[in-house]
Amino acid sequence: MTSKVVGVGRQFVVKYGRGLDLIEGQNAIWVATHTGIRVPKIYALYEDSEDEIKYIIMERLSGITLEEAWPSISNAQKDMVCVKLRNIMQELRALPSPGGYCSLDKRPLPDGLMHFEGTHEDPSIISGGPFATEQDLNRAIIQRAATFHEHIKGKAKFYERVFSEVFINHPPTYSHGDFQRKNIMVNFLESGVEVALIDWESAAWWPSYYDYSTALFGCHRFADDWHHWLEKVLDPCLKEAPWVLMLINELYY
């Protein structure tokens, strides 16, 4: 069962499901505690012991998603939003890693480039870290992909050669992990615009290229100008992004 999201009145949103990871709520609490970034206030995190369904009860933020707003807002409004988003992402990316590439409290990295389906007798193959170096992370991504995705096995040596040249010197950087317009809330007021980030399940200390590259994936068919404005929010990683997009397509589609 995948997670579902329902609104409860004007104040609350409940996200629930057996596949839900409560770290999403824990990440939001941690970010709210350590930054000035606007995120949904988390009221409760729990798992029903009988049916194993997990619940996150959170604040219902005012406004609409940037995805909904984008077609109808002016360039001046887009610029205003992107200035706020750049400040948000700079503050987020300044949060120091507790040690290497990992999730909160040095837990394993979430899905993303570590995606797999199935089990394996060797725990090192399914380990999501933490990883002390980018080289360790690169090896784990390739090994896991080749183990669980038959069509990638023949490409493993190729990826090893590419990764050793492309994915180097990227420090662990706290990343939202799913930086798409659908996960950005905006509320336009006479005094300006309020901007908030939602959906923190993929947040972790990923390599510094990760948020830009996965955000570019969220541009889908590049049907509008979001990709242009995205570069005002995050410094482009044009060398790394195509390889990330290729790997994501192979892991998920």
Automatic annotation (TrEMBL):
The Aminoglycoside phosphotransferase domain is annotated at 30-226
Check the record and name the InterPro entries matching this protein: AGP_Transferase, Aminoglycoside_PTrfase, Kinase-like_dom_sf
Keyword Lyase in record: no
Q: Name one GO molecular function term.
A: kinase activity
UniProt keyword annotations, A-Z? Kinase, Transferase
Lineage, top-rank taxon, reads Eukaryota
Give a yes or no for keyword Transferase in this entry.
yes
One short Pfam name that applies is APH
Protein name in UniProt: Kinase-like protein
List the source organism: Aureobasidium pullulans EXF-150
